[in-house]
Amino acid sequence: MMSSIKEQFNQISPSEFFYSNRDLAGFSNPTRSLYTAVREFVENSLDACDQKGILPEVHLTIKAVESEKPDPKQYVLTVKDNGPGVYAEHIPLAFGTVLYGSKFGLKQARGMFGLGATMAILYGQITTNKPVIVKSSADGKTQDEFEILLDIQKNKPVILKHSTKEVSKNGLSISICLEGDYSKAGTKIRDYVYETSLITPYATITFDDPKGQKFHHPRFVKEIPPPPTIIKPHPHGIDVERIRRMIVESQFEIPIIDDTMIEKVRKDLGLSKQNLSFIAIIAKAKKKWKTLSRQVRVVIALMSFLKMDFEKLRKIRIEDLDIPNKKLYYWDFGDSQSKSIDIDPESQYYKQLTNTVQGEPLTTFLTKRFQRIGPTTAVKFADFAGFKPEKRMGTMTNQELVQLSDSLQKFEDFLSPDPSCLAPLGEVPLEKGIKKFFNPDFTAVVQRPASAYSGFPFIVEMGIAYGGDIKSGGPHVYRYANRIPLLYDEGSDVVLKVVNETDWGRYKVKGDPPFIIVSHICSTRIPYKTAGKENVADRPEIERELRLALQFLSRKLAAYMSKKGQVEMAKKRANLYAKYIPLIAQFCTELAGKKKEPNYKKMLEGEAIVENK
Amino acid sequence: MKTSEKSKRLSKKAEEKQKNVLEVLQTHGAKIYEDLNNGQFPKFSVPSRSVSNIVYDKKLRQYILGNSAALRSSRNSSQLRSFTQLMWLAFFANRLTKEKKSSTLRDVYYSSQAFAIEFEDQGESDNIIVDLEAVLSKPREDFHIFPEERSSIFGDLNIEYTIPGYEGKTMNLSNHPDGYSIGPSLTTSELLDTSAEIVIAIEKGGLFTRFVEEQVDKKFKSIIINTGGQAPRSTRTLLKRLHDEMGLPIIVLTDGDVYGEHIAMVIKSGSANAAHLRELTVPDAKWVGVWATDIEKFKLPTIPMTESDIKRCYDLQKDPRYQEGIWKKELDVFLRIKRKAELEAFSKYGLTNITDKYLPQKLELAKSI
After folding, report:
1. Looking at the predicted structure, is the pLDDT value of residue A330 above 70?
2. Most confident of A18-22, A330-334, B270-274
3. Predicted pLDDT at B219
4. Looking at the complex, does the CB of residue A599 fall below 8 Å from at least one CB of chain B?
5. ipTM (interface predicted TM)
6. What 3-state DSSP class applies to A361?
7. Closest partner CB to B91 (pick from A576, A587, A599)
8. CATH architecture, domain B2-146
9. What number does CATH give the domain A2-217?
10. Would the pTM count as exceeding 0.90?
11. Cβ atoms of A77 and A44 closer than 8 Å
């Protein structure tokens, strides 16, 4: 997905890309766009705080530019946080260009590439032609304020204003002007803020809405859940494009031979102060070969073909190593021209160079770049996939890459994905949140053990609550994915599917019950049905975990309901006795021809005590 | 003189009956009073009236309830309401009987509301009345609750009322040609004397009027009773008393179909619905017509039997009472000819044909069966 976006970016302007993808990204109309922009900024703030272990304080403000005008109209959207901030030198690029090629780390986060926030900025600029205002302090002392427009054609920031001032706190504030429709989007935005604070109980979130209302959700949990660790990908969750990228990353480039590098080589050879001839250098290197680092070895190998000492080496720059034609090209600063020499395949240094550009052997590639693959599994896999274990990654043809990718999907002996990259909320904070929000009579939560689909680990957390402040007509389902509330398109969501397929009568839940279900799916990749991130597709593995979680909770609910039923029954029975026994007493007194009624009072009291047990 | 003595004896008997009802009610009341006083939830058993517990008693020649009984406990919250309803009804019946006031089924339903006893509908209160009958083994008429349906009686019979306000007043039941309706006052009255030698129970009001017009009462020294279809229980009680107390034979004349045959059977041996009661049958009553065989014999105009008529025949064939005698024989013929004839069919041969020709033959026959 990412790499296909990247390719498009390379070909078309970001503006064009934005227009052709605005529906997918959630900027289809003023209502949806306002909501999506809020989400993107709030989620960026929360992610930034999470990454640095800061208890988030996020302040969201939406203000109409001209409040009397009817919707849709221009709004100023500001999101301010107490996060780590962004260093001044990065701000123009981070907020004034459409980012691509951002680091593909594998861990759970609300947003993946920071692309959504850029989309929001772009949407704002396109609809109002106003700059984004970024205020940031990364050191807690100085704050940099930028007004930036995006040069859409060149994909470059245009800084309109830059000033600094002294502050006492870290944090970032982003403010954009955009066309929106708050009268329609308001409900969703308020729901979003409300539901976000349920799943982020360690954050304080404040929302000032355009009508002057303030929604304040203070944190009620003091501990941030343990942050996820960045881990290597699992072979099942990989495609050809990812492999290609990884090969590019893994290939050892010929090091840039500048003064620093030359100093390093000299030092490693113990020749810092000495100027030796080329032959002497090579001889010295041979002696110390085993202790030399890879980079140094490559430099020595180059020197052996170039037949140059350090002084000469300083005056050239390596241009290319053409293995098939066995030629080495370099630029000679002295003559100001490109030169080439033949390299001898018989030389002991030949292999050093070819290996460098041809990359690692397959087995090394697998064990070093993927999670949970050991040398034995790597060899077994190579056999399964039909490759030699020592096959160099740099020599793979396109066809071989496809074959490798297919085999990685099919091979079944890989261990299941490592869940340490996931950051579930945890049962205790989830339960606390549910209790605080709904004040229910009954609550149960569960965190399922980690599982995986297509190589992506995931964890399902779920809570169920009944009674209290909960409205009847349940189950009301609150869906979350990676701590993001999902508010749109619930109809086709896998969670809803699982809930709707449950026969609640079996769990003694009948009629118009006041109960809620909170479902949280954490994964390095949530299988959203659309790029708008609103509904989760029904992967069988996820569906199964959801079902198990719901069954577990439903059984607890059923136990509560039957206990509740018994208490109600006892109450009802006591009421019945209180109503009818006196009547029976009255009638039988006359029938028996007695004057005084029998003493039945103690009997009713005794009954009440027995029932209460 | 003789009648007066008899009257006194009978009057005493009626009083005894009342006393007996009151005693039974008091016994039950006292037991429940004791239970409550001892801090226990009162309970009593009600004979089960489910189909499986209704059996035919050959000796008694009627349906009776078997041995199974349901325990009704006030501790059981699902029975508490009906328990209280039953207690109220006993309480209400006690008052009725003591004050010699009569009430109808519908009355009971409404009276309950004065005591905050809610019956959902009359069906529910009727059911509780049957429960009380079963518990006391006494028909509801004994505790002064009467049905709405009325049938009528005509003939030379002197009665003496026992109901409050009419005590000692006498009446001859041949004074009014439309007949007298058989209600609580008649059912509870003393039967003094009669010149009649037989009771003719006839199914239909139209024929009853014809019989009065044709002076069947005088011509055949009879008391004529219109059962109005299936005889109500008060009528059956009266028939039983006429038979037992006055020594009169009872004959039953019905339409010539399977329902008519069964009307006669219910008078003779009761219904499954009243299997919990034993005072309602006249085992010596005789069904004299219209028989299936009469249809051919008297060449009566007929109508074909319906599906439900035929089904009813098959149902009755399984009834132990239809296994012998004319009961079996006529049922078989009905099933064979699959046709039926009404009492009015005799009008084909003249309006008085039934009283002039048919009835005398049947009366003669009745002596021999």
Report:
1. yes
2. A330-334
3. 92
4. yes
5. 0.74
6. strand
7. A587
8. Orthogonal Bundle (1.10)
9. 3.30.565.10
10. no
11. no
